[in-house]
Structures are given as structure tokens and as C-alpha cells.
Amino acid sequence: MVPNNLLQVDNLKKYFPIERGVLRDTIGQVKAVDGVSFVLKEAETLGLVGESGCGKSTLARVILRLLPSTSGSVLFEGINLFELKSSKMRGLRKKMQIIFQDPIGCLNPRHTIEFIVGEPLAIHRLAKDKERRMRVLELLNLVGLSSDSLSRYPHEFSGGQRQRIGIARALATNPKFIVADEPVSSLDVSIAGQIINLLRDLQERLALTYLFISHDLRMVEYISNRVAVMYAGKIVELATKEEIYRRPMHFYTRALLEAVPTLYPKTRRSRLLLSGDLPNLTTPQGCPFHPRCQEIKPECKEIEPELIEIQNGHFLACHHIFSC
Fold first, then answer.
1. How far apart are CA 136 and CA 18, in angstroms?
2. Is the pLDDT assigned to residue 266 strictly greater than 60?
3. Strand pairing partners for 45?
4. Strands (E), 42-83
5. CA 37 – CA 10 distance, rounded (Å)
6. SS3 267
7. Coil, helix or strand for 305?
8. Which residues share a beta bridge with 209?
9. Strand, coil or helix: what is 63?
10. Mean pLDDT across the chain, nearest whole number?
11. Cβ distance 145 to 198 under 8 Å?
12. Which among 87, 108, 123, 309 is least buried, having the fewest CB atoms inside 10 angstroms?
């Protein structure tokens, strides 16, 4: 059985205005997300990688309508999220949740774990009183926390335990789609591995669909089905993880992968080093990667490459497909 498309993002853009003066006149725009398109199937994990500031978290927040979009569309189960009124969007939010990067900052220190995990149930009127408490206990057990956590506060838990609490809260409304925004970046390696294994186990048990954002390319390889590489607000390469990690075609993708530490550095070919300047996101021209590319040609400075499918399921944005 072929899985259905759960999420479809089409030409999504998010521009932030640059303002100046007392009257806050707009003198330009920062193109944080600039024409991103992809499809996410049910029970799939799409890894999203790229340098800091490339627009990964902004893209995730626009998809969830935590930030307004500039243009484009996001279809969730065939429904355009940007056309929904607030009341209807609130009902749909039960199916879409987010796990935040900071397991400390995302938990209110003044509330108990019972209140924090049960709050989505109260907001969406899914359970109350005794039924809500039973559901919270079920969620805590699901993420590997004991029942004595109910009356405790976030500061009484370790970083890994706090992230488990955040995951339990995200699962409270039985979502289909979860954005995991750098969920293990602040954790020790061993604890991060436990959280990743928990996410994989939950996906198998609950048929969850993930958009997994991370700087850690090894984590992305472990948990993802497909990988999208983002640079300067655009996706420059998208393919299965096998294609991305074994046969990367974009110079930027290759440079990212070769920067990953290895136990056998002597077996690695000469490392690709990125040089040049980061692109200007206010007035981009040509390929956004051309100031740092070692295979630059004249058209790279003038014409922006489109993200096209060069073979089955492998998308690339480059003017020199066969030389990448």
C-alpha cells in the first residue's frame, strides 16, 4: 500500500521587513525562506539539514502557522492551512505538534508536570479531571517516566527527562505530524541517542510523521527516510538518505558531509572546504551558493537554478548537474 501525502509545501516564502527611522519605514526584506517546496508522506521522516541561519526553524514555524507566511501554500491532509480561519485552524492543531530545541525554556517552571502535559488536553477539551490525569500517566509511561513525576516541577528533572516531558506534551492530542526542531542538540551524546531511539519507537507505534531538523548529520541519517539540504532559505538537494549520504551531488551537500568527524580520517579523500562569503538575503542574485562554490560558471551569478528532479526522487538545484 502506497502511503498518502500528509503534508505538501508549495513555493513557500517568508520575508522579514527591514525597517529604519522613527516611522519604521520598510527599506528592504530578508528572504529567510524563499520558494521552498516538498511533500511529506504519512509515517515518513524528512530530515532537514543546513547551517545556522539557513531558515530551517523559520520554515517549520511557518508550516505550523506559528509565523505568518509571505506567500505559498501548505496543504495538510489536502487542506490549505493558510486559508483557514483561526477557529478552524485551532481544531486542526491537534494533529500537528512541535518538539522544541530547549527542554528547559519550553517548560513553565511554575507548573507541575501533570499540568504541563495535561494542558493540551484542557485546551482542546479532550479530557478533564480524573480522565485527564489517567491520560497524563499514560503519556508519561509512553516516554519512559514514572508516575511519581506528576507532582514534580521541571527543575527537578535532567535535560533528557525534560525533553521526554516535552515529547509527552506533544503526543497528548494524538497528532499525526510532529516537527522536531533540534530536539537533541543540547543533550549529551548518550542521552541524545536515547531520545532518538524513543522518537523512532514512537513513530512505529503511533504511525507518526516527522519533520526532523538537526545539525547532526549522523542523527539525521539514523532517523530519516529522506533528507532535504537547505541553504540561504532554499532547498538545494532532496533525496533518500541513501542517495544523500552515499552519492551527494550538490557541492554544499558534499562539504557538509565531509565535515562530519570520522574514526578513520586517513581513509577520507581531501576535504572540501567552504570559502567565500555568505549570500546577501536581502538582494539575492543568481545561485545563492555561487560565492562559495568551487565550480562556479558565469550563469551561476545571474540565473537562480530551479530545484528539479534529476532522477527518481532525487532533486537538485544546480546549473551543472553532471559536474556536481
1. 44
2. no
3. 210
4. 45-49, 71-76, 79-80
5. 4
6. helix
7. coil
8. 177
9. helix
10. 90
11. no
12. 87
